[in-house]
Amino acid sequence: MTMPLKFKAPNCSLLMSVCLIFSQGALAEQKNVSAIALDRCAGHAVNEPDLFIWNHENLRVTKNTLQTSSSAELDKSHKALLKRADRALTEGPYSVVFKTSVPPSGSKHDYYSIAPYWWPDPNNKSGLPYVRRDGERNPESKSSASDRVPLNHLSSNVSTLALAAYFSDDNRYAKRASELIRVWFLDKKTRMNPNLNFAQAIPGKTTGRSVGIIDTYDLVQIVDSINILVYLGQLSSIENEVLKQWFTEYTLWLITSDIGKEERRRSNNHGLYYDVQVAIFSAFADDFRALRAMIESIKRYRIPGHINRKGQMPHELKRTRSFHYTSYTLRGFLDAADLGECVGEDLWNFKTKRGVGIKLAIDYQADFAGKLGTWKFKEIGSFNTKSFYSNLLRAEDAFGDGEYEKKARHYKQANNDSLSRLLYPKTLLR
């Protein structure tokens, strides 16, 4: 492998200082957050991979169960995983330099994507400037001129391969996943520059937008995958440190760039997804104080600003795909709750003085399980239950009272190949 640059230690102190400003004094107490992190997320304490959103215990339960073949349900999901992993062995690699377009910077190493819900103006011969059609995806946004689809494939395939390697002990999967990581992040000929200056461009309007930062939410699940690959010995310690450096640089761009600052100010799912990205990328770079600062921000601002006393998320209910965006945004809150455990914060049960919390939002949507026809807000097209099903499994894993499992059963058949069944196996083992 060709290393992209001479290794230097991540500048975590700068990242931490900026996050201290974000937290508005939330870090006044001097806690040993690194020690706290060892208890939940640092796998080396129990000779397992570091994990931030995925869970050591769950992965261990799944692997042990698969080895004894004591669950037909998990076996079915595992076979589906291996089928996808076998396909992923032949797909890729992926790189920002493979796109057919050149970003305004003149460097193909800069990420570039086209806004998904913007279309050529039928009233102008040139089609410019593009006009918005919310919820209707322009096929151009998935073209070879854009990096959006390759990034999505990278995230999906790396996660699939890493989990397949962990559960099956087949190094073919880990080796391929590591190759994909090297091409996208490490090789100087193909690596992505750590910025999103040209994401979700709108032809005729702008070369890039702050809302494009949501594109890199695909990198969130890559972090845990990287840690599994390091644990399996397919990524070296030096490669791991260079990856930490890349994510540190990207996080600093998120925090200091005008585009990043604008995205942080957004009140809908974009603002939440920004916070979660900064949180997990900071944790990956070993900056747990920055992680704590972002968790405090989510407690103080995102939860009360996004969820009302009914458990609704009004910003998402305004969308033409209100059910989809409710599920989508809940995923961000569930990711935040998992990350909170890394620094001893219980977001699962947290409530504001008005009684608003993540569980309230989960319960609001969960009440429609088995009766989606009663959903009174706009949802163009059919109801996609993939994210909804995953959220219900995660909620059951967190609260364990059996109610979310009952609701999830409505969508079990349609989602029997869901990775979530392997990540949250307890619901299938009762």
Structure description:
The chain is mostly helical. α4 (72-88) crosses α5 (148-168), α8 (237-256) packs across α9 and α14 packs across α15. It has 17 helices and four strands. 50% of the residues are buried. It is 51% helix and 3% strand. The longest helix is centred in the middle third of the chain and has 21 residues, at 148-168. A two-stranded parallel sheet has the order 1-4.
The profile of the biggest β sheet is:
2 strands, parallel
Number of H- or I-type helical stretches: 17
Percentage of residues in helical conformation = 40-55%
How many extended strands?
Answer: 4
The N- and C-terminal alpha carbons lie at a distance of 46 Å
Our estimate of the beta-strand percent is under 5%
- Report the structural category: mainly alpha
What is the annotated CATH architecture? Alpha/alpha barrel
- Which regions are unreliable across 5 or more consecutive residues at pLDDT < 50? 1-14, 16-38
Average pLDDT metric: 90
Domain tally: 1
Pattern of helices and strands: HHHHEEEHHEHHHHHHHHHHH
CATH class: Mainly Alpha
Compute the CA-based radius of gyration: 21 Å
Find the CATH topology.
Answer: Glycosyltransferase
Feature tags:
17 helices; Glycosyltransferase; two-stranded parallel ribbon; 430 residues; two-stranded antiparallel sheet; single chain; disordered N terminus; mainly alpha
Quick gist of this model?
This protein is mainly α and 430 residues long. The protein is built from 17 helices and four strands.
Layout of secondary structure:
Layout: H1 12-23, H2 33-40, H3 56-68, H4 72-88, E1 112-114, E2 118-119, E3 131-132, H5 148-168, H6 171-186, E4 198-201, H7 218-231, H8 237-256, H9 258-264, H10 269-284, H11 288-306, H12 314-317, H13 322-341, H14 358-366, H15 386-399, H16 403-408, H17 420-423
Helix pairs in contact: 1-8, 1-11, 4-5, 5-6, 5-7, 8-9, 8-10, 10-11, 10-13, 11-13, 13-14, 13-15, 14-15
